[in-house]
Design goal:
With 260 residues, this protein is of the alpha/beta class. The chain contains seven helices and eleven strands. The protein has a six-stranded mixed beta sheet with strand order 6-7-8-3-9-10, with helices on both faces. It has a five-stranded mixed beta sheet with strand order 5-4-1-2-11, covered by helices on one side. β4 and β5 form a beta hairpin. α2 crosses α3, α3 crosses α4 and α6 crosses α7. The structure holds adenosine-5'-triphosphate. Adenosine-5'-triphosphate binds next to α1. This is ABC transporter ATP-binding protein.
């Protein structure tokens, strides 16, 4: 693993409450790509994203982000993180919110107009945030995360609740950002978003069960869509039983990995 990786995770374990919700993840996320983190509700996606941004207490393992330990102070302005709940001030307009966050982050004031344009919020710029729809509020949070042009964007279900047109526009934005060198990790429980990613990490029950390109995953599983591929990977693991799980490369998924 080297400089081409934005994130390197080794044998990561996390316990939340009584259960182990991440169970020995080893994975590498390449730089300058849109990496989709897909899996059913409760599979551990949010917990993994929290580990990457350094806000999750971990049990063991290491998480290295842009060459530094996750959570390091030096990473604060290099990472943009959008949670599932919008984190904006209701009593400010869209532009006022973004102006405030730009000031706090030390981002140039000109960034406000840029991120409003990128997230398609031009028509709502002077609207109070409390009067926006849920999808629009989510985009204000995304716009805030784009301020200062962070090297890594960690986005938890950014397209949830958006109509197909906006969803398509946001994926196009993610790819433009990646083409300009930004690394993105985007979670979703909607399997049909898989095809839009450069790489996929499929999660289930606190484990990454596949790490591949969308086309590589379909080829490896002989399936036509991500939903079928996901099921095929699960079946193959169950058929492999404990022998497969306890093999010498247990839990190891690298940028070159294949669905197993
Ligand atoms: N604060 C907490 N205390 C105890 N258990 C928790 C806590 N937060 C999450 N969990 C558990 O950890 C597991 C993984 O949750 P996580 O939110 O990471 O999943 P997810 O894949 O992001 O799900 P979703 O798509 O619904 O957001 C779940 O079983 C959940 O119940």
């Amino acid at each position: 693993m080297g400089a081409e990786l934005a994130i390197e995770i080794e044998d990561l374990r996390v316990r939340r409450g009584k259960s182990e919700v991440l169970r020995g993840l080893t994975v590498g996320v390449p730089r300058g790509k849109v990496v989709g983190l897909l899996g059913p509700s409760g599979s551990g996606k949010t917990t993994l994203l929290r580990c990457i941004v350094g806000v999750q207490r971990i049990t063991s393992g290491t998480v290295t982000v842009l060459g530094a330990p996750a959570g390091a102070a030096s990473l604060r302005r290099r990472i943009g993180y959008v949670t599932q709940s919008a984190s904006v001030y209701d009593d400010l307009t869209v532009r006022e919110n973004l102006g405030y966050f730009a000031h706090v982050l030390g981002a140039p004031a000109s960034d406000v107009a840029r991120v409003i344009g990128e997230t398609g919020l031009g028509d709502q710029a002077t609207q109070l945030t409390s009067s926006l729809s849920g999808g629009q509020r989510g985009r204000v949070s995304l716009a805030a995360a784009l301020l200062g042009a962070p090297e890594l964007l960690v986005l938890d279900e950014p397209t949830a609740g958006l109509d197909p047109v906006l969803r398509t526009e946001l994926w196009a934005l993610f790819h433009r950002l990646a083409d300009a060198g930004t690394s993105l990790v985007v979670s979703s429980h909607v399997m049909d978003e898989a095809a839009r990613c450069d790489r996929l990490l499929l999660m289930r029950d606190g484990e990454v069960i596949a790490d591949d390109t969308p086309s590589g995953l379909l080829a490896a599983t002989g399936t036509r869509d991500a939903e079928a591929a996901f099921l095929a990977v699960i079946r193959a693991r169950e058929a492999g039983g404990d022998a497969a799980r306890q093999g010498p490369h247990h839990g190891r998924h690298t940028a070159e990995g294949r669905a197993r």
